[in-house]
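Q: Convert this sequence to structure tokens.
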Amino acid sequence: MEADNILYIHTRPSGGAGESLRQLVKSRIGQGKSIVVFADSGFLREEFENLGLNPPPIYLHLRDWIHYKPTSYSPFRLLRYCAGVGVHLISILRLMVLVKKHKIQIIHTNAISLIEGAILSKIFKIPHVWQIRELIDLDYYLPKVNKRRLVRILEKYSDVILCNSYRTKESVLHFGARDESLHVIHNMVNPVENPEDIRELITVPENTLLVGILGWITPNKKVEDFIEVASRFYDDPLDIKFVIIGGWGWSESYNQKIKEQMEKSPNHKNIILTGIVPDAPRYLGSLDILLNPCFTESFGRTTAEALIAGTPAISIRGTATQEIIDHGETGFLVEDGDIDSMVKFTRLLLDDEAKRITFGKLGQQRCIERFSDKKLLAEFHDLYRKLIESSTAHR
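A:
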């Protein structure tokens, strides 16, 4: 492969988007130079630093343009805004220095909320890949910018709008994007290097059956559905624990709702909240089932990480997890909010160890075939090369 110099710009080293970027940058080591710039810190900061990039990840003051709307026009707020603009201009200048110093050939913005990559692309006339990782056709996503205008801006200021799933692509097409401006490359997902049994962490016997959910406790994750499923198993003769792996999210009212639901559940003794667990994916192989009721999955990293660890999963039809789970073969897909079906398929898998093992092995095999770094790195390289060659030809 020819070596390409890529500037990656992202919000913060955290979450599924941050981990997806880390996997991509890690896979490119030895294949070209990756310059990574973040707008803020996050819990994956150390993991990025451990990649040994030269230079190491850079943190600058970048601006969220799609969610900004002033709450008032007081003199103090206007002064603060002007100061922020000044700092932002300094960040743009520093980015310009990076582009020239490292002879950047592609700018890859890993979040639609950041505009700096688009600006640099126009200044230096180099290709810009603008990544979208949201199902923008859902009402859950409400940027301050009109969605059709958002898509027009993404098209105008990028050479490619990169989607992390065909479901994401469908959501962008819904708001008027041209098919030829869109490209799909799924997220990289690889087996963890040091898997561990979460039973040791939560101190339960090794023969305890575990149904888990992984992620921040936020409204889109539908943790209430997970608890409702757990509640239906309150008098079950099997030793089953329902494990919520994750910390409290940004919504205090939603956090309180979940706390109350857990306390009132007839099965509350068998619902375990771990809090934030570092490197949580290493525990997914020790679950018997992953139940993911989230209705906003533009890819479904947790679902893919469970399958690649050999754990069957249940998730929501109409999200991008339908590109990960083969219904009835590696897991099950249900309609959003369909608790009865979630309970039915959870029961089916808990009662049939042989089916769990069969589903787990096939899920692992198919995830490796679809989402391995070897396969997807070649797709990224082909995309980058085409953009570079096209840009060179038009100069």
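The chain has a mean pLDDT of 93.
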